[in-house]
Amino acid sequence: MTAVGIIGSGAWGTTLALLLANKGLEITLWEHRPERALAMRQSRENALFLPGFHFPHNLRVTCDVVQATRDKQLLLFVTPSQRMRENARLLAPYLGPDTLCVSCSKGIEISSLKRMTEVISEEIPSAANRIAALSGPNISFEIAQGKPTAAVVAASSEELAVRIRDMVNTPLFRIYTSTDVIGVELGGALKNIIAIGAGIGGHRRPDRYLRQPAQPQPAAWPSSRGWRKAGRYPGIHPQRFRGYLYYQGCPATGETLQR
């Protein structure tokens, strides 16, 4: 049975743990606070971040980073982006030589302006050719409810992306593959800038423009010139970058703010 470690027990980390446990994988969910880990083990749910969803028997919760890391075929990093470096550094000594590492966190490290896969690579250089990014228009609570969604796994090689896809893909969580790691990560990080502005400007109904990005943009909408410049960042596939921005979660985040 495939053993998966999930580093971070927030709403998204717990959702991924449930998703893969229900697929039949052996899941170890890491919570850094011992009292929270104990509470989840006793109640068999994450009452703080994702209440009401029972943990199956093959989902184990631990506060021991060694248990969460050692002898795993796949390791998902689902920590806050500004804590990614310290967590990667913490578990690096226990990472197996063949463990695949996937960043599931959207964001850029403030102090260095590094992407999450770059941060992980710096802290675990031996795993640099086994690191990928998972991103998509995913809302934890809806996925935990069993609503279908999709995401993309981006890696330096198509072979690595396909290996990870096959591990995490489910009938309700469809995974696509890409080799545009930079575009996928920056799209996931930058889309919130658009989405938050769209949600705040609710009187202009910007969600219409999110659903139909080809329509004229409202005056309050960020200029597409800036996003085109971002799409020319070295290593990004420019034709796909606009799609990453719009379809990684702009509609989901913007319309959530409208509610």
Structure description:
- This protein has helices at 11-22, 34-43, 65-69, 84-91, 116-123, 140-144, 158-168, 181-200, 207-211, 224-230, 238-247, 250-258, and strands spanning 3-7, 26-30, 59-62, 74-77, 100-103, 131-135, 149-155, 173-178.
- With 259 residues, it is α/β, with parallel strands linked by helices.
- The protein has two domains: 3-179, NAD(P)-binding Rossmann-like Domain (Rossmann fold), CATH 3.40.50.720; 183-258, no CATH class.
- Strands 3-2-1-4-5-6-7-8 form an eight-stranded mixed β-sheet, with helices on both faces.
- The termini are far apart.
- Residues 203-223 have low confidence and may be disordered.
Q: Reading side by side through the largest sheet, how are the strands ordered?
A: 3-2-1-4-5-6-7-8
Number of E-state strands? 8
Which superfamily, in CATH terms, is the homologous superfamily of the largest domain?
NAD(P)-binding Rossmann-like Domain
The fraction of residues in strands falls at 15-25%
Query: What class would the helix/strand composition place it in?
Result: alpha/beta
Number of domains: 2
The rounded Rg comes to: 18 Å
Q: Unreliable runs, pLDDT <50, ≥5 residues? A: 203-223
- Overall shape: it is globular
CATH architecture of the largest domain: 3-Layer(aba) Sandwich
Mean pLDDT: 84
* Percentage of residues in helical conformation: 40-55%
The topology string of helices and strands comes to EHEHEHEHEHEHEHEHHHHH
Number of helices: 12
Subunit organisation of the chains: single chain
| End-to-end Cα distance | 42 Å
